[in-house]
Each structure stands twice: as structure tokens, then as C-alpha cells.
Amino acid sequence: MKVCCAISGITFECAAFQNMQIQATDGYFHPIFAAKYTQLTRQYVLHTRGLLTPVDSYLLFLAFLHSTNQVEFKYPVTLDPRSKQARSLIENNIAQLIGVIEKSALLRYANFEQPSFCISWENSKLEEIPLWITAWKENLVSFSKRQGTERYNEALKKLDNKLTYLLRSGIAPEKFAAIVATWADKAAGFPADKKDLWIKTITNCFNERKMFSIPLSLLKQIKAYCEENIDLGSVHFHTLMQVLDGGINKYTDYLGGGTHALGYTIIASTPAPNTVAARYAATYTETYSDILEPPKASDYPSKVAFLKAKIAFRINKTTAIIKSKGDSLNV
């Protein structure tokens, strides 16, 4: 018997229960949504090493999203897990999602709440996910500024070390090079006619002897494409930029130029304009801070602006509730 998962939209087989007359639309979930969080993190390690299938990575991403308890699935996700769009969404956002989950768990305050969201037919392709993650990040920053402690900041440092350990632990440098190169293709969607060359080039950047055989123009081309198409906080983004910048800098230093002369830094402090990183780094400040009533789509110039307004409204509403609770406790 085949059953359609009410969360992922994936159809899975239940061969042992053919005679139970269970309807495929009765709202049953794939077993991964019953997994413990620690089990999900072990699968995440396999994902970062490229050892999961596209469908498994898709299910893992949705399981982490489900584990937040801040997303209501009123309609199954309709994104094709094998599509280029799905691969890019997962690779650009899974690390940021896990970071938000882990950091939210550190804030064990009765008055801390994250905004809640809902998946319906209209947004079932998950195009709003980056905006939701940004909203959760902004809420974390806002709350920690108000009530953050030295103990919390120390816990954050330990968490960052833990997440880095999950990515690099037990992997030989040459194997890690291949993992980062393959991941970059999944996250950015390399052009078909350049895919193999670019993956090989990134892999060679980890080897100083091979690095000097790479044309400087090719390194710059790959770096520009990755900056344009990979989100700033994604799994291996910083490592990828360090390697590409390192290749460019060593190449030009060898030829007599310097890194300062070229204007390169190891990791840019702010994303380049008009990149994916820049678009998702936008915060809900002056433009949206005064939204206290449910916004209407007709009042905004684009769908993205309207989505940001909706998220800002929910954050403002949550903040107002938290503030009122705090005021009542102080009376």
C-alpha cells in the first residue's frame, strides 16, 4: 500500500498493511518526522558529506523544520525533491535553520517565543522559508540584546564550535575539498557546460601545487558566480570563499601583486549588492517596524515586500505580547 506523507508530499510504501483499507490522504507522516533531534543531527553529518540521496536530504530538511514546532503544515509540500530548486533551497538554508533551532533552545526563558508560520497550498513550494529563517534570526538578536547574559554568549560560542565540528570531524583534507566543491554545485547550480571544470577547479584550490595551474580569470569567475547564487550563511559558504580568495591572493602574490592592491578580503563583512546573501540579509527595521495591523497585498509593490510585511507584523505582535507580559510581571 502506498501512502502520501501529509508533510513532505512524498509517497512511501507500507507493504505489510495492504488489508487495512487506510486512505492515502488521511494525514499520515513519513517515519522521519518521529525521529529524535539527536538522530536528525547524525543524518545532517551524512548530508554535509554528500552521502544522502536528494530525497533523503529533502526529508531531513523538512524534519528539522517540523522540529521547530513553529511551522504548521496545513498542506503537503509540493516541491520536487530532485529538482534544482529543491537542492538549492536545502543547501542554502539547512545550516541556518539548524543554527536558529540550536540558538533558540539556549534561550530557556518563559517569555521568549519565536514567530509561527503556516504552510498552505499557496506557499507549498517553500519559497518563503528564507524569510522565515531571517525572521527567527532577527527575533533571537532582538531578544538577546534585551536579556542576553554572559552565560548565554558563552553558550553561543560553544554552539558555533559544535556546528563546525559536525562539518569537519574525521574528514581528510582532500576528501573535504571534494565535498565542498560538490556542495557548491548543488547550492549555486553551476551551468551544465562548466559544472565539471568548476568542481575540479574548487577541489584543486585546496592543493597549493595544483592551484597555480588554474587561470586567475577562472577563479574570479567562479567566485563571482558563487557570491551571486549562494546564501551567506549556508553550510560551507565561508570555507568556499576562504579557499577561492586564498587561491586568488596566492596567485597574485606569486606574480608580484598583493591582496590589498586587489581589494580582496578573506570573508566579506557584508554581502555584495544584488546577491542572494544581500537579499536575505535584509532586516525588518524602519520600513516595517510600525506595522501593527494585518497587511494587505494590494498595499505593497511586490509579493516579497508583502511577505516581509506579514512576517514583520507577526514579530511586532509577538514582541508586543511579550512586552505586555513583562510589564504585568513588574507591576
Describe what this molecule looks like in 3D:
- The strands form 2 sheets. Strands 1-2 form a two-stranded antiparallel ribbon.
- The relative contact order is 0.09.
- It has 13 helices and 4 strands.
- Residues about 255-285 have low confidence and may be disordered.
- Helices cover about 55% and strands about 5% of the residues.
- It starts with a strand and ends with a helix.
- By secondary structure, it is mostly helical.
- The chain has 3 domains: about 35-170, no CATH class; about 175-280, no CATH class; about 285-330.
Q: What gyration radius follows from the Cα positions, in whole Å?
A: 22 Å
The count of domains is 3
The number of helical segments is 13
Strand content: under 5%
Low-confidence stretches: 254-287
Fraction of helical residues: 55-70%
The secondary-structure element order is EEHHEHEHHHHHHHHHH
Biggest sheet: strands, sense, closure? 2 strands, antiparallel
| Cα-to-Cα separation, first versus last residue | 60 Å
Average predicted local confidence, pLDDT: 75
Silhouette? globular
Class from secondary-structure proportions: mainly alpha
